[in-house]
């Protein structure tokens, strides 16, 4: 049973009424076809109204849904012969990041992604999807291996942020993330990054430098969580909803700002409704994106990647602003 979200309450209530009418029709042998059809039309209209007009905070809730598909879920649907690799060859293996080699429609690729748990026990084992330095070093080891064997790299981003604890800082958390940014910017193979849930702060950036950055429709990508932002600005984490409105963290906002390259549509109600169907949406975008990048010469690939990040944040003054200045 998929848990419902706060804004879905009217849909759930109407769906329950519809189920009750269907049950009465079957048990009491009463013809309620007209009433059922009327409710079905109302339900469809209500779903369209709610899901097509989601607020930023609604999308934050969907991105955090406990049943939202993870990296390993998508790997099972999108790739074949996935062979997971472990360890950074320096300290140990961080289960908050998974990675390995696989085939994508016959093409050898390296797949890396944040991995959170599906229940409390697994979340503890995977540190709630918040990587330690060895996770980023494992990812970099696999990227350099991909470069050596000329394999495209596909990264799935889904983390609240890198682990901010004492042990992570002692082992060089900041350096590990910075090293990934540096190395990924010059990696000589195509890199496709896909935000599938939360993309939080440097923890997301550590896997987020690539030729194309795609986002699922209800994912978020930001320097800080809405709660953290509200705590800093208003000293009140309960104003997270207001912060989410101001931060422009949704895929729609980030596409407008040219931070991301494309938005991947989601299953109605969110990716947690059907991991298989959501994988098909991702597949269409991934296939097209990889085909475009594989055509580029290495020099053109690197130049395009460089220009992509140089253009982020660029703006032009309007004529009125120029006159005022």
Give a quick set of tags describing it.
325 residues, 8-stranded mixed sheet, 8 strands, transferase
Description:
With 325 residues, this protein is of the alpha/beta class. 50% of the residues lie in helices and 15% in strands. Strands 1, 2, 3, 4, 5, 6, 7 and 8 form an eight-stranded mixed beta sheet that branches. Helix 4 packs across helix 13, helix 6 packs parallel to helix 8 and helix 10 crosses helix 11. The radius of gyration is 22 Å and the shape is globular. It starts with 8 loop residues before the first helix and ends with a helix. Belongs to the AccA family. It catalyses: N(6)-carboxybiotinyl-L-lysyl-[protein] + acetyl-CoA = N(6)-biotinyl-L-lysyl-[protein] + malonyl-CoA. This is Acetyl-coenzyme A carboxylase carboxyl transferase subunit alpha.
Q: Summed up, what is this model?
A:
By secondary structure, the protein is of the alpha/beta class. It is about 50% helix and about 15% strand. Strands 1, 2, 3, 4, 5, 6, 7 and 8 form an eight-stranded mixed beta sheet that branches.
Order of helices and strands: HHHHEEEHHEHHEHEEHHHEHHH
What would the principal axes of the Cα set say about the shape? Answer: globular
> How many strands, which pairing sense, and closed or not: the largest β-sheet?
8 strands, mixed
Number of strands: 8
What are the low-pLDDT stretches, counting only 5+ consecutive residues below 50? none
Mean pLDDT figure = 91
Structural class: alpha/beta
Strand residue percentage: 15-25%
How widely separated are the two ends?
Answer: 59 Å
Radius of gyration, in Å, reads 22 Å
Report the helical percentage.
40-55%
User: What's the total helix number?
Assistant: 15
């Amino acid at each position: 049973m998929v848990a419902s979200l706060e804004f879905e309450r009217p849909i759930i209530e109407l769906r329950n009424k519809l189920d009750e009418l269907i049950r009465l029709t079957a048990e009491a042998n009463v013809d309620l076809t007209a009433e059922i059809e009327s409710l079905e039309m109302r339900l469809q209209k209500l779903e369209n109204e709610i899901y097509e007009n989601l607020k930023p905070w609604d999308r934050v809730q969907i991105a955090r849904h406990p049943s939202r598909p993870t990296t390993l879920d998508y790997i099972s649907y999108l790739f074949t012969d996935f062979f997971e690799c472990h360890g950074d060859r320096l300290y140990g293996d961080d289960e908050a990041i998974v990675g390995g080699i696989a085939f994508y429609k016959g093409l050898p690729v390296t797949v890396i992604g944040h991995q959170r748990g599906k229940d409390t026990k697994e979340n503890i084992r995977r540190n709630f999807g918040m990587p330690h330095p060895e996770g980023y070093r494992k990812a970099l080891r696999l990227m350099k291996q991909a470069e050596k064997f000329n394999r495209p790299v596909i990264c799935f981003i889904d983390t609240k942020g890198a682990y901010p604890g004492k042990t992570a800082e002692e082992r060089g958390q900041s350096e590990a993330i910075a090293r990934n940014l540096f190395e990924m910017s010059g990696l000589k193979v195509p890199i496709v990054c896909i935000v599938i849930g939360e993309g939080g702060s440097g923890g997301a950036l550590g896997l987020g430098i690539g030729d194309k950055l795609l986002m699922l429709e209800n994912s978020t990508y930001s320097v800080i969580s809405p709660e953290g932002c509200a705590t800093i600005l208003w000293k009140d984490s309960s104003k997270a909803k207001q912060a989410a409105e101001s931060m422009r963290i949704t895929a729609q906002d980030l596409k407008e700002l040219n931070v991301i390259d494309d938005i991947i549509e989601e299953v109605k109600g969110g990716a947690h409704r059907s991991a298989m169907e959501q994988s098909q949406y991702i597949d269409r975008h991934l296939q097209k994106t990889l085909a475009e990048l594989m055509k580029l010469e290495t020099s053109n690939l690197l130049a395009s990647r460089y220009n992509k990040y140089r253009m982020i944040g660029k703006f032009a003054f309007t004529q009125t602003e120029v006159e005022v200045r």
